[in-house]
Amino acid sequence: MKMEDDELRQAMAVLETYDAQLEALNRQIRLLQVSLEDVTRARETFKALANAKEGDEILVPIGASSFITAKVTGKKTAIVGIGNRLSAEKDLGEAAEFMETNVSEITKAIRETAGTLGEIEKMAAELSVAVQNEYQYRKQSVQ
User: Fold this and answer.
1) What is the rounded distance in angstroms from the CA atom of residue 111 to the CA atom of residue 60?
2) Which distant-in-sequence residues (6+ apart) come within 8 Å of 117 by Cβ?
3) Which CATH number applies to 5-129: 3.40.190.10, 1.10.287.370, 3.40.50.300, 1.10.3210.10?
4) How far is residue 115 CA from its own chain's centroid?
5) In angstroms, rounded to a whole number, what is the distance separating the alpha carbons of residues 25 and 45?
6) Residue 79 bridge partners (DSSP)
7) pLDDT value at position 1?
8) Which CA distances in Å does 20 have to 13, 42, 69, 120?
């Protein structure tokens, strides 16, 4: 395929745009994965607390891969972040279910973002091949 100079410049600009989009999507996936790990850890902690008996000692994650030992009380509720800096007190079972819903939503977002990433990677690869072919064609034409 023979490209005019304007078409080649436009193709290069589109490739730069694809690169920026791919970088942003990769960053978004990494953030979603961190959120997924946090939500999964919270869900598992709520489940462990719900199944523990009063007086049991359990390890409670406090962040940064750190845990503290805590004794379980008879109170079976938790304060749960529900979005936009709002929190609500929930029964431990409800809290675990809420986190399960978040896990599902985040997992879906990761899948969708990864799908978009794959589509853009494919388009970028195809365009890159076309640009490389044009450079090869021009290089051979000069010789």
Assistant:
1) 30
2) 22, 25, 26, 29
3) 1.10.287.370
4) 12
5) 30
6) 89
7) 58
8) 11, 33, 45, 11
Beta bridge partners of 57: 71
This prediction has a pTM of 0.84
pLDDT tens digit string along 39-94? Answer: 999 999 999 999 999 999 998 988 888 999 999 999 999 999 998 999 999 999 99
